[in-house]
Each structure stands twice: as structure tokens, then as C-alpha cells.
Amino acid sequence: MDARTGMTLGLIGYGRFARFMHELASRFLPQLKVRIFMRNPVAGVETVSLEEVAGSDIVALTVPIGAYEATLKQIAPMLGPRSVVLDVATVKVHTSRLIREILPGQPYVSTHPMFGPEAYAKLGSDVTGLRIVITDTNLPAERISTVSTMLRGFGFSVVEKTADEHDRDLAETLFLTHYVGQVIARGNFERTDIDTPSFGFLMDAVDAVRHDTELFRQVLRYNPYCDAVIERFDRCESEVKALLQEGNLTADRRD
Fold first, then answer.
1. Whole-angstrom Cα distance, residue 200 to residue 203?
2. What is the end-to-end Cα distance of the chain in Å, rounded?
């Protein structure tokens, strides 16, 4: 994974995030030859067979979390012995376990870029400080160190933690943002001409997640920490309502 000249990157699936990965690869690693496989070809996008993509030096699983198991079983006999499977899913315990169970011994690295095309565009394509989490891998430590150094050289921030730590933290950050953002979006709350900076920041977060409904559902399904976050949020929302009602009753008594 040191991105030598002539190396190939295979993308299985070509949704929004896969297209974003392609854009980043073209910008930062122009020497990589990108191969794309998708079940429903898009006009203007050159595709190859799944077998050819699976034979790439780096094989990125850019499919929905729910499609991981079937995809891994399908490509298992097609992968080259040195092909590195790249997991970029939003959850890590579930996908890493599937890779180890279905592809025992296959080189792999599980990562999660903590940003997407919306944040990238809003920052004017500046990647400085954008985080990439690395969790599970069976690659030698020196290879991971080389990749981390390369990514930091581009401006990214690389964070290493366990898959379980990632999923716990993600439930309380990204998933919570999705939860609140979806509520606000469905309430038709929108920007006005008197927005405070804090409301603008809130709506930036809403805009970043309002179109990711399916990802939102899949993270809830495959990250066991999300249910507790919802329960905690709902309980605290009820407590805030109770405080407001108590305050109103107190004010009424004073009147």
C-alpha cells in the first residue's frame, strides 16, 4: 500500500463515496490506475469486470455495509494473494470481523475516513486536519507506518484505535449528528437572514447528513452502541422539556 507507480486501485461499487475516493486518488495519487466495477454502469464511467477489480493491488469495498458479506464471499476466489482489501465502512467491528472470517489470511486494512464530499467541498478541498481512522489490519507495522506518513504528508490526520473504540466514539459523534440532523431536516427548519453563527454551524451539520438516510439506518443496524445513544438523547430531551415546563409553572405562580 505504498502507492508505487503502476499499482492499481479497484473500486467495488461507485456510489457517492466511491466517486469521492476516486477524486481523492486522482488528486493525491495520480500514479494509481483506478479500476471500477459497478452493477449498474453510468454513462461516461469506464468499468471493468469484477474479476479484474478483485485482482487489483488495493481492492476497496465501497459498497453498503449490508452488502459486505455477500461481496466478500463473491470476490474471495478472485483476489490475488497480495491484494490488500481496503475496508472504508462507517462501522468497524462488524466489517472487520467479516473480512477475517470470510477471507482468512488475506491482507487487509480497516479504515474510516471521518469526512465526506460535502465537508471536503465546504472546506474548499483543503484536507488539512481531516481525520482518517485506522483500526484493524494484518499488514506489517512498517507498511502501516509508511501509509500513515504518506497520508499525514498530504495534510490528513491519522488516528489509530481499536474497532470497538471507533464504534463507541462514532455512535456518540457522527451517529448523533445524523440523528439530530434528520430530526431537524424533517421538521423543515431552514436558514434565515438573521441566523446566528451557532445556528449556521448547526445547519452545516444538517446539510452534511440530510441525504444519507440509508447510511443512517445501516449504522444503527450494525453499530451496537447507537441504541444507547438514542435512549440517552431521548431521555435528556424529556428532562429538558420538564425543566422548561417547571420554569413556566414557576413563572405563572409569580404572575
1. 5
2. 71
Same domain, 186 and 226: yes
What Rg do the C-alpha atoms of the chain give, in angstroms? 21
- pLDDT for position 119: 87
Q: What is the number of residues in the chain?
A: 255
CA angle 178, 166, 54 (to 5 degrees): 95
Decide which of 109, 135, 161 is a domain's last residue.
161
| DSSP type of residue 20 | H
Does 190 lie in the same domain as 151?
no
Q: Which range (106-115, 122-131, 196-205, 210-219) has the least confidence?
A: 210-219
Domain limits for position 77: 8-161
Rounded to two decimals, what is the model's pTM?
Answer: 0.90
Residue 78 within any structural domain of the chain: yes
- pLDDT band of residue 22 (cuts 50, 70, 90) is very high
d(CA 197, CA 194): 10
